[in-house]
Please model this.
Amino acid sequence: RQCFVHGALCYCYSGQCLFSSLIGGRSGNRGRCAQPCRLPYEAYDKDNHRMGEPGDRYPLSPKDMCTIELLPEIVKSGIMSLKIEGRMKTALYVATVARTYRKAIDDYKKDPKLYEQNMPWYKEQISNCTYRQFTTGFFFGPTTHDSQIYDNNTYVKGYEYLGTIHESLEDGRGVFEQKNKFSVGDEVEIMKPTGENIVTKVLSMQDEKGENVDSCPHPGQRITLQTECTLQEYDIIRKEKEVSGDECEGGSACHS
Model:
């Protein structure tokens, strides 16, 4: 028994939308949707009168599903598998959301009060890696206009994925394959598999030849990293950034 608990919702009935195929040649029914419903549009009635308010630029964009507050009901219902959107998402998104739901479930089973106490943390973690607002969809009945986003499509705050530690060294350094540029002296955040997040400073970097470098500008570089904290295998490195109001999650139509 499985249910979908977190991620983007389709504006149309599943398997029935041809929008992406018609305007972009990418079939949503074959897992290649360009998400054209996330783009800004203007809606007009049959008499060519503009519908909605002047700021309503996203008439086809639903909010994302988020059930982090519904986990007690989901667990009690007998559902055994929780489905989280991951296709065409960044590694940081998948790691953050999956880790958060895993911790929330574990906390609830350990002590329901602990789960309630940690709810602000769960929400903060999830909001750090996604750009849209949230809804609980059809979990409690038919949806209303509150499930749609009309005036905007993004969050302001976000994080950039820098890499994952593949090998930990005895002196506390870690080896990773770089995904986005950062430099010695930068403040980064280390996401531990346990749910702990450690803000730390980059102290040094060495390239594959063992030579010191000030930054890692080339994606795919194998870098040995030293920070103020000990790095362990599977640690995820991220950096806080500011995103513009028109940026969207990887895999959406504006990146196609």
